[in-house]
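Incident log, support desk, overnight shift.

02:14 A customer reports that sequence design results differ from what the structure should imply. Their input is reproduced verbatim below. On-call engineer (initials T.W.) acknowledged and began investigating.
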């Protein structure tokens, strides 16, 4: 099973769901896909769409997932890393109405450069990235949550003030 999670944002992220659906259609993805979509309105006959998943159930789905495709939300990424999951991560973008600014690009870059995740920049290349995922070993995550959050808050504050 592949878990797609868009977090609980009040902004849509249809682009990511369409990219996943395309990979199901062309056969790159052949296993069951469960998508936790938050407030994103999306209908699919190929994916199981769930707006919000209770925390206990979400943890169970993370455990069961072969890999995760997610937005660049810190909470979603950290939860996947704690479960030692391979993750493909995409940033929501302001120009598509997916967020209020482009701070998720910085989050994506930081986790990618640290070797924790594979970034999805070009959504048309999702199929290639899924194939590359087999040879990807994510860096082991050692939680230093408090210090990490402080640093991230500083980075986000700097981005918001630019």
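02:41 Re-run completed on a clean worker. Output:
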């Amino acid at each position: 099973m592949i878990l797609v999670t868009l977090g609980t944002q009040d902004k849509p992220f249809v682009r990511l769901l369409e990219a996943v659906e395309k990979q199901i259609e062309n056969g790159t993805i052949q296993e069951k896909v469960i998508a936790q979509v938050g407030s994103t309105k999306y209908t699919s006959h190929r994916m199981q769409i769930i707006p919000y998943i209770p925390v206990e159930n979400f943890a169970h789905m993370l455990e069961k997932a072969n890999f995760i495709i997610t937005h660049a939300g810190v909470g979603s990424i950290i939860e996947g890393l704690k479960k030692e999951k391979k993750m493909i991560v995409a940033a929501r973008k302001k120009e598509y109405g997916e967020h209020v600014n482009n701070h998720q690009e910085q989050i994506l870059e930081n986790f990618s450069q640290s070797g924790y995740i594979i970034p999805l920049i070009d959504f048309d290349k999702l199929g290639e990235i899924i194939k590359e995922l087999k040879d990807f070993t994510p860096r082991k995550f050692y939680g230093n949550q408090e210090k990490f959050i402080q640093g991230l808050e500083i980075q986000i504050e700097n981005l918001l003030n630019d």
